[in-house]
Design goal:
This protein is mainly alpha-helical. The protein is built from 4 helices and 2 strands; from the N terminus they run H-H-H-E-E-H. Helix content is 54%, strand content 10%. A two-stranded antiparallel sheet has the order 1-2.
């Protein structure tokens, strides 16, 4: 039976990025860093990042990734 509270890989990564304060270009993370801090397989991180970028929750710039204001708002909405 599936856990109804299990998060999708993209949501887990979004929350991990927020916890790591990857919220601007100065604190942006590379895929390898996100792989380490999320404890997710590299291919899962890459797929989740592609999804988050397509939603506008994450910005990709020069192989670095960070949350947009929209992405930050999504994470905050989980806690309110």
């Amino acid at each position: 039976m599936a856990d109804i509270y299990e998060l999708t890989p993209s949501m887990r990564l979004l929350m991990t990025m927020h916890h790591a304060s990857a919220v601007d270009i100065g604190s942006a993370k590379k895929v390898e860093e996100l792989n380490l801090i999320s404890d997710m397989p590299k291919n899962e991180v890459a797929g989740a990042l592609d999804e988050l970028v397509s939603y506008g929750y994450v910005v990709r710039k020069d192989s670095l990734y960070y949350l947009t204001n929209l992405g930050i708002g999504v994470v905050r909405s989980v806690y309110t």
